[in-house]
Amino acid sequence: AKDYCVLGIESSCDETGVALVQVTDQRLPVLLAHALYSQIEMHQAYGGVVPELASRDHIRRVLPLTTEVMSASGKSLSDVDVVAFTRGPGLAGALLVGAGVACALGAALGKPVLGVHHLEGHLLSPFLSNDPPEFPFVALLVSGGHTQLMRVDGVGCYQVLGETIDDAAGEAFDKSAKLLGLGYPGGSALSELAEMGNSAAYKLPRPLLHSGDLDFSFAGLKTAVMVQAKKCAMAQGCAVEALPHVVLADLASSTQAAIVEVLVKKSLAALMRTQLKRLVVAGGVGANRDLRAQLNAECKKRQVCVHYPELHLCTDNGAMIAMAAAMRLQSGIQIPSEVYAFDVKPR
Ligand code: KG4
Ligand code: ZN
User: Fold this and answer.
1) Distance 192 CA to ligand 1 centre (A)
2) Measured from the CB, is residue 98 less than 6 Å from ligand 1?
3) Domain contains 39
4) How many CB atoms neighbour CB 55 within 10 A?
């Protein structure tokens, strides 16, 4: 088979991402160029993502980003052989922008279009790193919307071992950060503050830690953080956001420790259960330094290899969508050749 190029478009939430990967016969697909625009600043004023604004901004960004990717890659649109886009899950209006543009490009170029599952993008994103994993592996998928442990035997061979029954890990970070006055999305701000605090300062619950299964629950933790923060505020006679920096840092550190401990212990349990010696961590929370440090240490003890996406590819991006499509194509899936009546799957 000859080499071919896959253009990937991501627009499921608040980042517009476009990327071009090249697929060759034997090796892993290669990332030629990618471009990303984050809307986070725009949504910050509202304390969360405003779907309507997100859709409108994707429309503004997606074509300029595509132009940027094409010129950075030294290719032209006529070199694109397949157009991939995020089909879901995500915000319906936001997804429709990527789907619409991908299908229009496909129609204009006379090339097939492929919808990709957003989580498969995250899952396969470590294959873009300098230290790509080999199948099979256990995957810990921790993003703002999802928390899952999976057994992955190959492209398209995914078995869910456990997942959250309520909030996602990233949601737990974000909601705790918000109530500590750290803005939105506060995951990375909370983790930075946590590094200055004492993780044993407050006793917070580790939900489902001993449940014997591989499921997660983070909704109760968020409530416990709120109760603890209010107690501290009452003792100091101030509002939560006005708490002294050291107290906030201790709260942040204790919160992070609770989330990370559950994620680490359940990942180790999944490795035990599957008897696999390889762990892949993907999704925005995979950027968390404390999580990485603890997983690295625990896995080293057990002779388990851990793989991460590169830091800048942990959160949403176009590269992972192009990569997932490319790996699917390499694994032999067929794309229907008729004109794509495009749709999205928000859930
Ligand atoms: O994968 P992602 O970009 O979005 C979804 O598909 O949901 O992940 C975003 C999530 C947010 O909840 C964000 O707060 C969290 O990842 N996040 C972090 C860190 N960086 C991003 N959480 C903890 N520590 C970090 N360093
Ligand atoms: Zn994501």
Assistant:
1) 13
2) no
3) yes
4) 17
Domain of residue 209 covers 134-308
User: What is the pTM for the complete model shown?
Assistant: 0.93
Render pLDDT for 49-59 as a digit per residue (tens, 0 to 9).
Answer: 999 999 999 99
Rounded to whole angstroms, how far apart are CA atoms 298 and 232? 33
* CATH number of 157's domain: 3.30.420.40
Closest CA to 171 of 134, 217, 203: 217
- Verify that 262 and 283 share a domain, yes or no: yes
Check whether residue 106 and residue 159 sit in a common domain: no
Beta bridge partners of 149: 140, 162
Closest CA to 5 of 28, 30, 26: 30
First vs last Cα of the chain: how many Å apart?
A: 35
Same domain, 222 and 298: yes
More confident residue, 346 or 339: 346
218 within ligand 1 shell (Cβ under 6 A)? no
- In whole angstroms, what is the distance from residue 37 CA to residue 301 CA? 39
User: Does a structural domain hold residue 340?
Assistant: no
Amino acid at 287: A
Task: Give 127-148 pLDDT, tens digit per residue.
Answer: 999 999 999 999 999 999 899 9
ipTM higher than threshold 0.95: yes
Shortest-distance Cα residue to atom 21 of ligand 1:
284
For 183, residues 6+ apart whose C-beta sits below 8 A from its C-beta are: 44, 47, 177, 189
